[in-house]
Amino acid sequence: GADVCCVCGEWMIRLVGNLYPGINFVPNAEKVMLADSYANYFCGIFEAERKSWRPVDHQYLGMQGAVEAILGLDPQPVKCRLPLGSKRPFPDPFVCISTMATNPGKYWNYPDGWNEIIRFLRSFGYRVLDIDRENRLNFAGKTYRIPEEAEDFTGPFPLQDRIDLLEHADFFIGLPSGLSWLAWNTNTPVVMLSGFTMPNCEFPTPYRVTNHLFCHGCWNDSSCFFDQKVPVWCPRHAGTPREIECTRAITPKMVRETIFKIPAFQRRAAAVAAASIQEEK
Question: How far apart are CA 169 and CA 172, in angstroms?
Answer without folding.
Answer: 7
